[in-house]
């Protein structure tokens, strides 16, 4: 843990960033000439490369938090008369349905509940049952629980059936190996402050160039018009339509450099997996178990059931850990008492060992207090 930060954020996101990422923001940029815009143009190319590369794909950056990029995509790529199927099993899937509803986009939702992973056979059935569906959207890592949906096999179904496929890979892109090709995605969405470990301020969409090209004029919003934003960046050498989050972009470039230096996505995935393994094994010894079975659990974030300690209160637990320099997340599951701990960010296995030791201390104190 750097000694210049008050605590580790185990809450993606925002998440813990490196000192290098934070320091890279200590200068201003003009946005009218090539020195900044070249940074953006290079960044877009690097994102496409990170998503497997190829001329077929392009990248658009969008101001705002990750949800803005999800809303920009859903609001821009479904034509009038199109219909969206949202497959959801958590709060972020639900949010896509909410976006479609708010924008009056014809849609249906296949709601699975919070602990049921998506099944490609069910998606095929849903598409056969409703031929009006033109687009399918799903979340890869449902950050509300930590569940990983099988986006590759669902992508194969979408390709076979000729549906446009939108993947919210917000919390997994850059941390779990995947490519546009392997997923079969037409649009894949992520943001600066998840696995690439930048600071919050913009999101991005990797898109099939042909699919994106046909969406001109479809957007239901001016500022969240994905096509217009893309077309400006393409034709004006990396220029954003409206004020660009320059410091955030610069920090993101630094974060991309650090991802490369770490050894790329495979190496980062390994670190997150090791963080996850030490966390789950460590707290299991303290009687704290994960909500989901290992087979559908991501290495990104884990939901844990409250321990069986009399009078356990999340707020006390949270404050006691924060005093020990660890910030965790409340749960986001409606039918179980859970809290969440993220493994992503500038967080290393030794940090997780210290976290487990801190949790042991806190549980010990709570147990003594409850037996008094
Ligand atoms: C973080 C996240 C988002 C976006 O959330 P914001 O708070 O808008 O950044 C969307 N989907 C998933 C799966 C996420 O993890």
Automatic annotation (TrEMBL):
<feature type="modified residue" description="N6-(pyridoxal phosphate)lysine">
    <location>
        <position position="194"/>
    </location>
</feature>
<dbReference type="GO" id="GO:0047304">
    <property type="term" value="F:2-aminoethylphosphonate-pyruvate transaminase activity"/>
</dbReference>
<dbReference type="GO" id="GO:0019700">
    <property type="term" value="P:organic phosphonate catabolic process"/>
</dbReference>
<keyword id="KW-0670">Pyruvate</keyword>
<feature type="domain" description="Aminotransferase class V">
    <location>
        <begin position="32"/>
        <end position="324"/>
    </location>
</feature>
<keyword id="KW-0663">Pyridoxal phosphate</keyword>
<feature type="binding site">
    <location>
        <position position="340"/>
    </location>
    <ligand>
        <name>substrate</name>
    </ligand>
</feature>
<dbReference type="InterPro" id="IPR012703">
    <property type="entry name" value="NH2EtPonate_pyrv_transaminase"/>
</dbReference>
<dbReference type="InterPro" id="IPR024169">
    <property type="entry name" value="SP_NH2Trfase/AEP_transaminase"/>
</dbReference>
<dbReference type="InterPro" id="IPR015424">
    <property type="entry name" value="PyrdxlP-dep_Trfase"/>
</dbReference>
<dbReference type="InterPro" id="IPR000192">
    <property type="entry name" value="Aminotrans_V_dom"/>
</dbReference>
<dbReference type="Pfam" id="PF00266">
    <property type="entry name" value="Aminotran_5"/>
</dbReference>
<dbReference type="InterPro" id="IPR015421">
    <property type="entry name" value="PyrdxlP-dep_Trfase_major"/>
</dbReference>
<protein>
    <recommendedName>
        <fullName>2-aminoethylphosphonate--pyruvate transaminase</fullName>
        <ecNumber>2.6.1.37</ecNumber>
    </recommendedName>
</protein>
<dbReference type="InterPro" id="IPR015422">
    <property type="entry name" value="PyrdxlP-dep_Trfase_small"/>
</dbReference>
<keyword id="KW-0808">Transferase</keyword>
<keyword id="KW-0032">Aminotransferase</keyword>
């Amino acid at each position: 843990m750097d000694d210049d930060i008050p605590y580790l954020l185990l809450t993606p996101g925002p998440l813990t960033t490196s000192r290098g990422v934070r320091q890279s923001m200590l200068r201003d940029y003009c946005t009218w000439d090539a020195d900044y815009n070249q940074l953006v143009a290079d960044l877009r190319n690097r994102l496409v490369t990170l998503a497997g590369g190829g001329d077929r794909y392009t990248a658009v950056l969008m101001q705002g938090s990750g949800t803005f990029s999800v809303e920009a995509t859903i609001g821009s790529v479904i034509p009038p008369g199109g219909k969206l199927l949202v497959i959801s099993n958590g709060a972020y899937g639900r949010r896509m349905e909410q976006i479609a509803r708010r924008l009056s986009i014809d849609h249906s939702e296949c709601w699975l509940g919070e602990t049921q992973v998506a099944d490609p056979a069910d998606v095929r059935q849903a598409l056969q049952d409703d031929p009006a569906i033109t687009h399918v959207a799903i979340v890869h890592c449902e950050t509300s629980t930590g569940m990983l949906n099988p986006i590759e096999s669902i992508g194969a179904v979408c390709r076979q059936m000729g549906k446009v496929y939108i993947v919210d890979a917000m919390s997994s892109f850059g941390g779990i190996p995947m490519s546009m090709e392997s997923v079969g995605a037409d649009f894949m969405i992520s943001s600066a402050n998840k696995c690439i470990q930048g600071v919050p301020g913009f999101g991005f969409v990797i898109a099939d160039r042909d699919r994106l090209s046909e969406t001109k004029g479809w957007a239901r919003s001016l500022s969240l018009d994905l096509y217009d934003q893309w077309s400006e960046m393409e034709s004006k050498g990396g220029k954003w339509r409206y004020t660009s989050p320059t410091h955030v972009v610069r920090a993101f470039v630094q974060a991309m450099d650090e991802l490369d230096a770490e050894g790329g996505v495979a190496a980062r995935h390994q670190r997150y997996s090791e963080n996850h393994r030490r966390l789950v094994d460590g707290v299991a010894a303290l009687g704290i178990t994960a909500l989901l079975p290992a087979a559908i659990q991501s290495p990104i974030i884990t939901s844990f059931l409250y321990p069986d300690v009399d009078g356990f209160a999340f707020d006390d637990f949270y404050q006691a850990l924060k005093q020990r320099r660890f910030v965790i997340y409340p749960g986001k599951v409606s039918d179980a008492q859970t809290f969440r701990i993220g493994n992503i960010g500038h967080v290393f296995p030794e940090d997780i060992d210290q976290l487990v030791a801190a949790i042991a201390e806190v549980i010990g104190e709570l147990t003594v207090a409850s037996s008094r």
